[in-house]
Amino acid sequence: MELFPAIDLRDGQVVRLTQGDYDRMEVYARNPAKTAADFLEKGARNLHVVDLDGARDGTVVNFEAIRAIVREGGLFVQVGGGIRDEARILRYLELGAARVILGTIAVEDFAFLCRMVEKYGEKIAVGVDARDGMVAVKGWRETAPLDSLEFCEKLDQAGVSTIIYTDISRDGAMSGTNLEVYRRLADRVNCNIVASGGISYQQELITLRDMGTYGAILGKALYTGALKLEEVLSLC
Length: 236
Fold this sequence. Notes:
Elements: E1 2-10, E2 13-18, E3 21-29, H1 32-41, E4 46-51, H2 52-57, H3 63-72, E5 76-80, H4 86-95, E6 99-102, H5 104-108, H6 110-120, E7 124-131, E8 134-137, E9 142-147, H7 148-157, E10 162-167, H8 179-188, E11 192-196, H9 202-210, E12 215-218, H10 220-224, H11 229-235
Parallel strand pairs: 1-4, 1-12, 4-5, 5-6, 6-7, 7-10, 10-11, 11-12
Antiparallel strand pairs: 1-2, 2-3, 7-8, 8-9
Helix pairs in contact: 1-3
């Protein structure tokens, strides 16, 4: 199983939100590129980067911070947050990102998503963020009338190779992840699933690994020290 340490960016800083609430934000670092370098030094191969400002309002406030992260080198970097047109997809891919994550646009314009998947293949992932089982969009501020698991099936059928599924109620809460939903996804889709939101314990990673989950994103648990990157890398 692949592990993705997470760097969430707001105003160029490394932050963590609790349950997607922009008013419940903690700043963990002011130099995102150094944070990426620290993850690499500890043995990471992958990195999950989210532009929170972009996710909320479509801006590119954090582009230079993302550029600095990618330029550190040595990591498979996937980037999401506010990517809603092909120009921004290309901008991140040309920057050196290995994969871009589409979210809101995948819900609002499914035909566009299908065109991008056909054109860029495995370089396109979709983030499915779920609140009470329904798909949330626009930086988690709105909920679409879409069942999250049914939407994952639709994405799988459309040829999406990687889905990043987040249970918003668990994200940043340090209360454990929603293991049951990943069991259900394993039975319903064939594409790669990345588990995201609330992973706090080593046993969760072992369970996800043993059920065949492709990847897991680690955020607050790393920043608080609840999980040690070097230790969990050896598990997965």
